[in-house]
Design brief:
219 residues, alpha+beta, 9 helices
């Protein structure tokens, strides 16, 4: 279930920019996740992003401010977005169970195992998606996970595309508009992100795929 996998590994430049021993910028803890898992669901989980956007929009101005603050933590590089049906709690539970069964869950054992594999290892969960396991430095959350690059049920997306999809869904939800409308997308980019317009929403690549994937993830 676990071990290095060349197609899923972070690039050398990504490891130079962010040490494997450091938590991902903006990594958000969910108290519903089983300890000791650390996971930034707002950056890596389409279904949870969609749920949270709708929840924050319903809170009015304060929710919108929190949404904008959360988007700043997404960063400016590419990210891997899980678009499957397993919720974060189920993914975390499966990974914890495997680590328990293999005797790797205790912090000192887990850290030694991760270091033996150059700072990360890969694990597969029930739906076939593959997850990168790294060392997390937050107290009681030493198992830091994110989707593996090019894993099944995962899209590799630019941060600007993810932010645009989030902003578009938020604007469409608050104003009861069609999120797949190019006008809504560009209104969201201008009003919420201070970005220029896009010319199209292709259905097979780019922003169009990211937006449709997030909309297909039910709340």
């Amino acid at each position: 279930m676990c071990g290095p996998h060349s197609d899923d590994t972070p690039s050398e430049s990504e490891f130079r920019e962010r040490s494997p021993s450091e938590p991902e910028p903006g990594a958000e803890l969910s108290t519903s996740l089983p300890a000791p898992v650390l996971f930034n669901s707002f950056k890596h989980h389409a279904r949870e992003i969609h749920r949270r956007v709708c929840h924050l929009v319903a809170q009015g101005v304060r929710g919108r401010q929190e949404l904008l603050a959360s988007m700043r933590h997404i960063g400016a590089r590419v990210t891997d977005l899980y678009v499957g049906r397993l919720m974060p709690e189920a993914i975390a539970a499966q990974l914890v169970e495997h680590l328990q069964q293999t005797g790797l869950l205790q912090p000192e054992v887990y850290r030694g195992w991760i270091e033996q594999h150059s700072g990360y290892a890969m694990a597969e969960v029930a739906d076939g998606s593959r997850w990168c396991l790294r060392w997390g430095t937050l107290e009681s959350r030493h198992v830091h996970i994110h989707p593996g690059r090019y894993s099944p049920l995962t899209l590799r997306v630019r941060a600007s595309q993810l932010k645009t999809a989030i902003a578009t869904i938020a604007l469409a939800e608050s104003e009861q508009r069609n999120p797949l409308s190019l006008n809504v997308v560009n209104d969201a980019r201008r009003e919420l992100l201070q970005l220029g317009p896009v010319q199209a929403l292709p259905s097979r690549d780019g922003l169009g795929v990211v937006l449709r994937a997030m909309l297909d993830a039910p709340t």
